[in-house]
Amino acid sequence: MIYHDYIILGAGPGGLQMGYFMEQAGHDYLILEGTGSPGAFFRQYPRHDTLLSLNKKNNFFPESDFNLRYDWNSLITYDSSLLFTQYSDELYPDRRDLVHYLEDFADKFKLKVRYNTAIKCITRETNIARHFVLTTECGQQYHCKRLILATGATKPIIPEIEGIEIAEGYETYDTNPNRFKNKRVIILGGGNSAFEAANDIAGHAAIVFIMIGNNLVNHAWNSHFSGDLRSFNNTILDMAQLKALHTVTGTSLTKLERQADGTIRAYFEEELPHWNTPGTAYGWFEVDHVIRSTGFQYADPMIFCESIAPKMDCKNKYPLLNSIWESTTQDMYYVGAAMASRDKKTTSGLIHGFRYNIRSLFNIINNRYHNKPFPSDTFELKTEADLQALATHLITRFSTTSALFQLFGLISDVLVIENGKAELFYELPVEYVVKESMFANKTIIVLTLELGFDKFENGFKDTLNFIRLNDSQERPGCVSYLHPVFRLYENGEFIKGANTRSSTLVRFDPAADLIDGDLANLKPRNTLLNFVNGVAKVTDIHFSEEHFCADPDRHGFILWEKDDPRTQNHGLQRCALTPECPQVTAIDFASFYKRNSLHK
Hints:
By secondary structure, this protein is α/β, with parallel strands linked by helices. The protein has helices at 13-25, 64-67, 95-108, 192-201, 220-223, 235-241, 351-370, 384-400, 403-406, 430-435, 437-440, 523-536, 589-596, and strands at residues 2-9, 29-32, 113-114, 119-124, 132-136, 141-149, 155-156, 168-169, 184-188, 207-211, 247-249, 252-258, 264-272, 279-287, 289-292, 296-297, 332-334, 376-380, 411-418, 421-429, 443-450, 483-490, 493-499.
């Protein structure tokens, strides 16, 4: 029997990221990996080799954290000494470069990884120790107090369709595009992997049917969720709309049947609620290939004994996780792609999101089990100079942070104000903050970066219509692109919220003046100053929140007269206007999470 305080199952990017923090802290841990090297998933996927994660190396500004906003493949370290940007110059790099990077990461930081150690089953002791027991295929047992699952995609999701075994799975099909020359092909699925496969054969196949059933294609440029369909993969949509034979259809596959000549008869149904006589149409047609690309499951309950098997979501895709990514089994956490269980809006399912979730979870683990304080900075808050110094720090933070930028509205910084001081805690899950007892009886300001597209009228579903700035001074909350939001809580009760404008660079510090020249003013800083001062009562000064600086050599603002025709909607194309937004206020996070809790 081998014992460690922590066992991390899986040596993909999630497991290595948690391993890094464990190693740096000197904790007793071991990473178990079933294959012979790290990053096993990326040795096979994506099937056509090109990652969808950005590798944008040149971003003008020098701050390492700011540049991580556009480096979606690096794992985070305390010294930024090993970055993926050293491995590729391509904006969309090759998956093999990521494998090489992960190998070097494990070696450089001397992470404790035991390879070729596949786990067959996981049980838990019933004695007072309650250790998890992991048994390998060879019968070796590993014991631990706390188990961290970093297993990534565990197996493909196979829809329950008669004859589905006839379909070729995305995970194993022969990707040689010449196989599909002048062939009729169905691709089942509506995500990036389905469109990736379609793109690869678009110039070879006679016709490609992407069957998405009763769903719409979610575009990442609309949802701002990088797991939705990326423009890099949407060639088929272009071709379909430009009448180039390929198509995306809302029909649902119901049965596959192999014919004597080797072709496949595909049975389908299509719901037609919009017809004058609503109903469901049925039919079949013949094709030469069917490729199943319907996603992956991110937990495998079958590996656990029944008493500790984590509960799954309604689609049996993700484990149910609470606000600190703990499963329904106490002391068992999920990291990596499974963290998307709690987040379908930002980046938790990808490296550039879950690396920050993992850092946050590590700090929570350190606090929960080792009584270590959360990372924080303390500021005097007694004079106007103190207030200005705090504002400088916060504005710089909003302007350079990658964590709040990537996990908008999900991860927050927390400012605790008491006894003439302000303590700033970094990168904690919002739901954890508004429920966590250490903040419950304090005066706190929850600081986030957030989008605001959902605040606007329903007629503007396409975010590409947002080509103009929003005026947030009279309409708090009505800011579309990423912008700072502040929420005041006292003794656990939401008091009020406010926000600043957005910016081209998502920077609000003096450095933004280099490019956002027409917005060079102190409004964001002064809005923050007034909000914090309203709580701390440091000065009687009200800081101006006017929009534009009076610098006629560079920029300014000309007020339209009331009779100017441009103030009227008529006579202008509607798309030339900024979408309308009713006056709203920042939502109370506590109420939101109480209504929408996934796992308590």
